[in-house]
């Protein structure tokens, strides 16, 4: 039973560039949430996708956008990268149309130079 | 906006000892309260979660205690082992909210 998988594992970009991160949810899950975790801090909610729609969004600028595909996988896109976007980006999946325990992947470590 | 306050920031315990981490939340939620364990270079792994209609849940050496009236919940790690050395996060869903709000984390070091 595969858990949440994310790709790539690591990524290095320069300021102003754009990046796309990918996530495949745990088998049986249909809801995907994205979080940003800065070093030494707890994860911060970016947004959640359910039924291919953004269901809820956290306090992140429009430079952060996402997509969910019919197979429930998801992408996180970040445009016009800033140094402050350097962080671990985590994908979490859950099931059902209600709050259920979310399961996290190991994340993508994004470094901005 | 859900705020979750977690303490202590770090703790050191001897092998076989008990680690206790506390969390307090602001807004009432009616879903579940999870604890996550995170090792360096890894994502948070769901450790144990409790529904607010029970006051305690135990899984192996890990126990969650939940005090709904005080809006507090805690994690107890019994018989702590060096392999338990990690960062632990509590989290809480908001009221009518799909996101999880996380505490700042507690770094637990178990000395052999």
Largest interface: A-B, 28 and 25 residues
Q: So, CATH architecture of chain B?
A: Sandwich
Number of DSSP strand runs of chain A: 11
CATH H-tier superfamily of chain A: Immunoglobulins
CATH class of chain B: Mainly Beta
Measured between the Cα atoms of the first and last residue of chain A, the distance is 37 Å
Main β-sheet of chain A, in a few words?
Answer: 7 strands, mixed
- In helices, the fraction of residues of chain B equals under 10%
Which CATH-level-2 architecture of chain A?
Sandwich
Provide the low-confidence segments of chain A as ranges: none
So, the CATH homologous superfamily of chain B? Immunoglobulins
Rg of chain A (CA only): 13 Å
- Which structural category fits the helices and strands of chain B? mainly beta
**What is the total tally of β strands of chain B?**
11
Can you tell me about this structure?
The complex is a heterodimer of chains A (113) and B (112). Chain A has one domain (5-112): Immunoglobulins (Immunoglobulin-like), CATH 2.60.40. In chain A, the strands form 2 sheets. In chain A, strands 2, 4, 5, 6, 9, 10 and 11 form a 7-stranded mixed β-sheet that branches. Chain A has a 4-stranded antiparallel β-sheet with strand order 1-3-8-7, with no helix packed on it. In chain A, a hairpin with a 5-residue loop joins β7 (64-68) and β8. Chain A has strands at 5-7, 10-13, 19-24, 31-37, 44-50, 53-57, 64-68, 74-78, 87-94, 103-104, 108-112. Chain A contains no helices and 11 strands. Chain A has 113 residues and is mainly beta. The model of chain A has no long low-confidence stretch (mean pLDDT 94). The model of chain B has no long low-confidence stretch (mean pLDDT 91). Chain B is mostly beta strands and 112 residues long. In chain B, the strands form 2 sheets. In chain B, strands 2, 4, 5, 9, 10 and 11 form a 6-stranded mixed β-sheet that branches. In chain B, β4 and β5 form a beta hairpin. Chain B has a single domain (4-111), classed as Immunoglobulins (Immunoglobulin-like, Sandwich), CATH 2.60.40. Chain B has strands spanning 4-7, 10-14, 19-25, 33-38, 45-50, 56-59, 62-67, 72-77, 86-93, 100-102, 106-111. The interface between A and B is medium-sized, with 28 and 25 residues.
């Amino acid at each position: 039973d595969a858990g949440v998988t994310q790709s790539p594992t690591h990524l290095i970009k320069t300021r102003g560039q754009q990046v796309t991160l990918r996530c495949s949810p745990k088998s049986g899950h249909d809801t995907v949430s994205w979080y940003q975790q800065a070093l030494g801090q707890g994860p911060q909610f970016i947004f959640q996708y359910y039924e291919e729609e953004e269901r809820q969004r956290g306090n992140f600028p429009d430079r952060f956008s996402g997509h969910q595909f019919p197979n429930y996988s998801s992408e996180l896109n970040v445009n016009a990268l800033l140094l402050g976007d350097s962080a671990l980006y985590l994908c979490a999946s859950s099931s059902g149309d209600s709050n259920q325990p979310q399961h996290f992947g190991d994340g993508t470590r994004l470094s901005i130079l | 906006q859900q705020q979750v306050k977690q303490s202590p920031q770090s703790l050191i315990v001897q092998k076989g000892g008990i680690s206790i981490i506390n969390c307090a939340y602001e807004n009432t939620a009616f879903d579940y309260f999870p604890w996550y364990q995170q090792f360096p270079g890894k994502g948070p792994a769901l450790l144990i979660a409790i529904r607010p209609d029970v006051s305690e849940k135990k899984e192996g050496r890990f126990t969650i205690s939940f005090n709904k009236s005080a809006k507090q919940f805690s994690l107890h790690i019994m018989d702590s082992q060096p392999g338990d050395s990690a960062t632990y996060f509590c989290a809480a869903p908001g009221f009518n909210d799909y996101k999880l709000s996380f505490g700042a984390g507690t770094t637990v070091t178990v000395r052999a």
